[in-house]
Amino acid sequence: MDFTLSEDQELLRDTARALLAAECTTSMLRAHIDDPAAADPLWTHLREYAGLAGGPLTDHHLFLEELGYVAAPGPFFATTALFAPLLGTVDHELLPAALAGEVTGTVALAGTDGRWRANDDPVKTFVPEADRVDWVAVVSGEPAVTLLRNPPTRLVRTVDTTRRLFEVTVDASGSGEPLPILPEELESIVEWATVALAAEMVGTARRLFDMTLAYAKERVQFDVPIGSFQAVQHKLADMALDLERATSAVQFAAMAHDAGDNDRHRATHVAKAAAGAAATRAAKDGIHIHGGIGYTWEHDLHLFIRRAYGSEHWLGTRAEHHDLLAEELLI
Fold it and tell me: CATH number of 183-330: 2.40.10.330, 1.20.140.10, 1.10.8.60, 3.90.980.10?
């Protein structure tokens, strides 16, 4: 299988890197902790790329990987990886506006048990950016989709300050007519979002690796850079191997979804598990190599460690996806 990027894909990646380097700085991430509106200027740029949600996942995941590299906050992921695919599946009239970046949205699916499957629970959990998007698409147990404006929300404090998650209280009064969706269609949307999240996690793992490698080259002990120590080299090598494995797994999963391949279900679980392994190893070993400075609030490392562990526990942990993969293989 050829994983070589096309010229258009390389241009998309390079454009995203240049844009995000200028517009999504760590100072903005810190400002966003106290004021979510600090990320609004970033959305004015990212909205131009919302149309990626209507194209192949192989393009979308490249852009999301760069977003993960900078731990970008805001509604882009919720709108393009969850909301727009759901609108497209139910053929909703808001889809063109979502793809044009004119409206934002999110999806309320997980119930009180936290699992991403159709249910009729009155409270939906782990809903990203629910208080700042235009629409919340609520998925009920039939399954069916209902769009709500400004439903009651409660912010849930998590380790990740860059991705704001909410509990949403479902109130169907005054809402539109529920739109039916097939169970297999809903499963496909969740898998799309899972691969998209795995792509973000690969970007975050790469950022942690790059920061750690740079530090190992510049930090001097006993008159030599600590990167010359074999123990540090082993950690960096293991981080690089996990990152390479995750990158390939996510790209294969994206290609499998675009092709409608029968292996796409298993590939999704492999991608999320591999991305989780890469991101959490990069976080753990990254802070070990940084030493005491890596534990401080003033250093930027914690911003990406938070994103790594937050994403690992969203849309299924590595262990959960290993279990699901086992079911796919044994049934």
Answer: 1.20.140.10
